[in-house]
Design a protein that fits this description.
About 65% of the residues lie in helices and about 0% in strands. The protein is an all-alpha fold and about 325 residues long. The chain has 2 domains: about 1-140, no CATH class; about 140-315, no CATH class.
Length: about 325
């Protein structure tokens, strides 16, 4: 496109001299964008950062093309410019209103031409709209990085709990002592004791506890969280951005489910929930682990809402409002 624009400028004696530097600068910016996209010029782990750099160079090239384009080219580019400006500038923004006026004048007057100040104004306004788009995109990238860091932290905590409870299995036994008709029984996630007429001591409870208790509860919580993740993805809309927002949100739920399953059962064991402090069978413990694992949705749903809000913001502040009336096509003549 830049090559074609340069040839058109060279064939027009009135634009030949002043358009040449703009065309050269546009080609230079596109070359920089191509170099930024080359896989040997950016770190593998930052697979999205180079896209923002390339987009900045492409935006600069488009601005140069606006300055060098003929009136016919501007007329062809105006609908795209108006759409971009309408998408990212507010309804009452003076720049948006002026762009709509220029578009209307071009629509009503086939012989309308742009002066140098109007070219500069269009280039600057469109550049502002693109900068706003990049800013919104960068917010999404920052959000994804934060969620990934939190997910890693929660996953490390889950692994640490599994390892430490495997080493010190009797430190905090995840067992319950239900009472029925003056009979006591120790119930753990992987093993249960015999009925006794005397309430078991902490040492006896620790003797029945097994190293796999916490690991089993975490697995149950993660399994339940996977189901919650699948259900949450149904409500998330996709995105064309190079940032996997729905995926990172789903990944956050899995270790969080393991953590909430363990913490929920510990709260029950400590009598925090009245009437639910004495689970009487191993399947009942696993069932509650599944419930607590799914309950992570109570916490992560706020992160889901924030992620979807950021994705919606990339479409601009006016994505749900009609475009300016000045940029609408006029009524057809009868």
């Amino acid at each position: 496109m830049v090559t074609t624009l340069g040839k058109r400028a060279q064939s027009d004696p009135e634009r030949r001299d002043w358009a040449r530097p703009f065309v050269a600068k546009a080609q230079e910016e596109l070359d920089k964008a191509n170099r930024a996209l080359a896989h040997n010029n950016h770190p593998v782990m930052r697979r999205s950062a180079h896209l923002g750099v390339a987009q900045a160079h492409v935006d600069s090239a488009l601005n140069m093309m606006v300055c060098a384009a003929s009136a016919e080219d501007i007329r062809a580019l105006l609908p795209q410019m108006v759409a971009l400006v309408d998408e990212h500038l507010g309804l009452g923004d003076p720049q948006r209103i002026r762009v709509a006026e220029i578009a209307r004048e071009f629509r009503d007057d086939p012989d309308r031409v742009l002066n140098s100040s109007e070219r500069a104004f269009l280039a600057e306004t469109v550049s502002l709209a693109r900068r706003l788009l990049r800013k919104e995109t960068l917010r999404v990238r920052s959000f994804v990085r934060i969620v990934r860091a939190v997910t890693l932290g929660v996953a490390i905590a889950v692994v640490a709990i599994a390892v430490l409870t495997n080493i010190w299995e009797d430190a905090v036994p995840l067992c319950f002592v239900p009472e029925s008709k003056a009979q006591y029984r120790v119930v753990c996630p992987t093993m249960s004791g015999d009925l006794t007429s005397v309430e078991p001591t902490n040492a006896e409870i620790a003797h029945i506890a097994r190293a796999q208790d916490y690991l089993l509860i975490e697995i149950a919580g993660m399994a339940s969280a996977v189901i919650a993740s699948a259900a949450a993805l149904r409500r998330m809309r996709g995105t064309a951005l190079p940032y996997d927002v729905p995926v990172v949100l789903a990944c956050l739920k899995i270790p969080t489910g393991a953590l909430t399953a363990v913490l929920g059962l510990l709260l029950m064991r400590g009598g925090f929930v009245p009437g639910l402090s004495a689970l009487d069978s191993t399947p009942q413990i696993i069932a509650w682990a599944l419930v607590f694992g799914y309950s992570q949705q109570l916490f992560t749903k706020w992160v889901d809402t924030q992620g979807q809000a950021l994705l919606d913001a990339v479409h601009g502040p006016n994505s749900l409002t009609p475009p300016s009336p000045l940029s609408q096509p006029g009524p057809a003549s009868l």
